[in-house]
Design a protein that fits this description.
- It contains 13 helices and 13 strands.
- The strands form three sheets. It has an eight-stranded parallel sheet with strand order 10-8-7-6-5-4-3-11. A three-stranded antiparallel sheet has the order 9-13-12, with no helix packed on it.
- It is of the alpha/beta class and 421 residues long.
- α1 runs parallel beside α4 (90-106), α2 packs across α4 (90-106) and α4 packs parallel to α5 (127-140).
- The chain has one domain (5-408): Aldolase class I (TIM Barrel, Alpha-Beta Barrel).
């Protein structure tokens, strides 16, 4: 009898879930609707805190970005070497984070969980304070769990150790190596508050990668997962390990659970669902993607390699740094490597600077022009049906869940609407 993912369950503390965790894709690609449907089905869905002020403006009638632009308009085009003065108002950041999380949690039904993916690299010219505010707001708003990502988070938990929900909200960490987890465990040992789960993200994941550009292809998810499982066993820490990156079929998922994983984290196949925040035109581009059109590059100002489609609009940008209204990844001194690349290019081509080295990531994330994707994106076309006009049938979160739970190496395709059969 073929093993199926539906034969397994994830246990976090005293709560049981289906063994599917949908990763948190920013900016608002992992919408509240997507996360809520995952929870309704009994799994775990993530929202993301990437550009969370913009997400609040989009869905909740606030004007945080417009207010910032007005506040700092006199600085537009000036001080391109340093943007420390445009750091975020912490009260506004708290309210924006609270708005998004609270509205999501108010809509929650079902037995699953809604978590938030919280990125350390969203520094906003004030790394420690902005991280603490986002953590506090999410817990105040009732989030079920927080997955710490895009960094080591060595000081993150200590920032909120006095919060009344610190020992009750589920806390997890994304790592790409056993070494990263060792550093975190050592740094947080004095808090006497272990993680509830660990997400192990392999080299085939979408977006930012925790590997070097030159060596990412030398690693594989199964090996890293085994190393993390062995390490946790050696320190008597019995928590689920959740592999992520390249898990495209139900068979891929069950292979990981047979290794000892507690669940899988998946994302690529949810980018093309009806509940995804990606515009339909972009979803159709993902369906059409070929393997050779997917690359790992260094255009992100975060310093991490990033996997995306080669024709992403964010590559080869000509725009002036847009930190006055956005600026979510400004460093502690107000610096950003896109600003540096822009300044260098404008000296050479003052009338038409075309920056190839880096991208204005905040701007293009907000406009859905950063087409980050998992390596397996080129296989999306095989998971659905193609219409007579060449376009592909848009799936639902429920469709994808069902396929992971009951499918194997091949996919259970959704039924075409009657008019298109």
């Amino acid at each position: 009898m073929n093993d199926k993912l539906d034969n397994y369950r994830l246990h976090l503390s005293n709560t049981e879930y289906l063994p599917i965790m949908v990763g948190g894709m920013g900016m608002d690609i992992s919408t509240s609707e997507l996360a809520l449907e995952a929870a309704n089905l009994g799994g775990i869905g993530h929202i993301s805190d990437a550009l969370i002020n913009a997400v609040s403006d989009k869905h909740h009638g606030t004007n945080y970005l417009k207010n910032r632009q007005q506040q700092f308009k006199e600085y537009v085009g000036q001080n391109l070497a340093q943007k420390y003065h445009v750091q975020f108002d912490l009260d506004e950041l708290y309210r924006a984070s609270y708005n998004v999380v609270k509205a999501t949690m108010d809509g929650k039904v079902g037995s699953g969980g809604v978590f938030i993916n919280m990125m350390e690299k969203l520094t906003m010219a004030n790394p420690k304070a902005t991280m603490a505010v986002r953590m506090k707001a999410a817990m105040d708003a009732g989030i079920d769990g927080i997955t710490m990502s895009a960094g080591l988070h060595l000081g993150t938990m200590a920032m909120v150790q006095d919060h009344p929900r610190f020992r009750h909200v589920k806390l997890g960490l994304i790592v790409s190596s056993k070494r990263a987890l060792e550093l975190f465990v050592k740094k947080t040992a004095r808090l006497n508050r272990p993680l509830d789960y660990v997400v192990v993200e392999g080299p085939l994941a979408g977006g930012h990668l925790g590997f070097k550009l030159e060596t990412w292809m030398n690693f594989d998810l199964a090996t890293i997962t085994k190393e993390v499982l062995e390490y946790l066993k050696s320190i008597d820490l019995d928590i689920p390990v959740i592999p992520a990156g390249g898990i495209f079929t139900g068979a891929d998922a069950t292979d990981m659970l047979q290794l000892g994983a507690g669940a899988v984290q998946v994302a690529t196949r949810f980018t093309v669902t009806k509940e995804s925040g990606f515009p339909l035109k972009t979803q159709q581009r993902y369906f059409r993607a070929l393997e050779e059109e997917i690359e790992v590059n260094m255009v992100s100002p975060t310093g991490y390699p990033m996997r995306m489609l080669k024709d992403s609009p964010c590559i080869g940008t000509t725009i002036r740094p847009n930190c006055e209204s956005l600026g979510f990844i400004l460093g502690s001194k107000g610096d950003c490597s896109y600003i540096d690349s822009y300044n260098k290019e404008i000296l050479i081509h003052p009338d038409n600077p075309k920056v190839m080295e880096k991208t204005c990531l905040c701007t293009y994330m907000k406009s859905y022009g950063t087409w980050t994707c998992g390596h397996m994106t080129y296989r999306l076309k095989g998971t659905t049906n193609q219409f007579a006009d060449g376009s592909y049938q848009q799936l639902t979160v429920k469709d994808v869940f069902h396929d992971y739970l009951h499918g194997g190496e091949t996919h259970i395709k959704p039924t075409l609407p009657e008019d298109d059969q």
